[in-house]
Amino acid sequence: MNTQTPPAAQPGLLAPARERGLLWLLALIQFTVIMDFMVMMPLGPQIMQAFAIGPAGFAAAVSAYAWCSGLTGLFAATYIDRFDRRRLLLVVFSLFALSNLGCALASNFHLLLFARAFAGVTAGVLGPMVLAVIGDVIPESRRGTAMGVVMTSFSLASIAGVPAGVALGAHFGWQAAFVLLTVLCVAILLAAIRLVPSLTAHLAKTPPPFTQVVPNLLRLIGKPAHLRAFALTLSVVASNMIVIPFISPVLVANHGVAPDQIAWIYIAGGLCTLFTARAIGKLADRYGKVRVFRWVAGFSILPLLFITHLPALPFIAIVAFFPFFMVAASGRFIPMQALLTTVPEPAQRGAFMSIATAIQSLGVGLGSWVGGMLLDIGPGNTLVGYETNGWIGAALTVFAMFWIARVGHPESPRVAAPVVPAEAES
């Protein structure tokens, strides 16, 4: 194994092949993080039966991940810019692999709860680390395209990761999904040792003493430009999460969809986002991130309202419709995330993205909590009130479409701009 640290990299200085390999590696890291979070949902019945817990106990395991991820992301802002990004990424991803092994080996619910919380702790650092690496290595003119590549991790998790985990869980027990994740993490870690370059340019500026960390963090959060970016992030995430967690329960309870059919719906949506994520990223680079966000967000309101006011439809029609929802719901994040990387100064990018990731976790928890409060049990154990969720999600989306003009710096669309080849590696 090559144990030598690769040379430091600056934006545009990686050879094209090395840059593509790094982006797909970052996508695979995100894939494991997303799969780790998503696979818990369909495994719920097996986990509740294995540990003799009710829905409240299972919800505690799910929420422990989200809240720990958010709090850790916020705490990470105090130290993430003090280290070589390569070294920190490798250490935290190794701990993430151990957290999944801990889930697989958990012999009681308390150990599982601890392992899920620890997984959230590591995931809260990995998210901003991936975004910070993109910001350090990829020039701004191609950052939307790069974000599109990394965002395909969501598609891969929907198409392959979660269905594979659920299938293994059905045949070998719920632990099998976390064994699979552990094996994948080890394989990706070995590739990361070879592909991730040393990233230390942000260390040129001497970091402040630790006594100044908290005051500096508060100043970082309190910058008007940063607050505007965090408000955008919170509104976009909440608009999704007030609807998405309840799609499967509503389809099962109100539309007679069998639980084992749900996977086909997400596979269909994931297949489409696999192709559209990179296209949306390229459009953001060409026509401007604000403009493309507004295009995708405006379109997303239609499928969002349709799925929360879903009429009686055959299952095949639901499968055919769902890609429109997933493409729009996930596509909004590509230009938004690319725009967020332009908000902070380079030396503060890691800290800023840590806080932004923490805000996303807050949006996940807040949106899910509010969405659940709005739903009630109706006649025949149906779920009622889902229409209200849709209207609130649409209102938050409209707010984001107007608010995004206040985020980042003015940008000029790059229409048919030539791409300057990256210099070859020395």
Quickly describe the structure.
With 426 residues, this protein is an all-alpha fold. It is built from 16 helices and 2 strands. Helices cover 72% and strands 1% of the residues.
CATH architecture: Up-down Bundle
Strand sequence of the main sheet, in spatial order? 1-2
Assign the CATH class.
Mainly Alpha
CATH topology: Growth Hormone, Chain: A
Structure description:
The protein is mainly α and 426 residues long. The protein has one domain: MFS general substrate transporter like domains (Growth Hormone, Chain: A). It is 72% helix and 1% strand. The protein contains 16 helices and two strands. A two-stranded antiparallel ribbon has the order 1-2. It is globular, with a radius of gyration of 21 Å.
Summary tags:
426 residues, mainly alpha, Growth Hormone, Chain: A, two-stranded antiparallel sheet, 72% helix, 1% strand
Topology, element by element:
Layout: H1 16-38, H2 44-51, H3 55-76, H4 85-105, H5 109-137, H6 143-172, H7 175-195, H8 213-222, H9 224-241, H10 247-255, H11 262-287, H12 289-308, H13 315-331, H14 333-340, H15 349-374, E1 376-377, E2 383-384, H16 386-403
Antiparallel strand pairs: 1-2
Helix pairs in contact: 1-5, 1-6, 1-7, 3-5, 3-15, 4-5, 4-7, 5-15, 6-7, 6-11, 6-14, 9-15, 9-16, 11-12, 11-13, 12-13, 12-14, 12-16
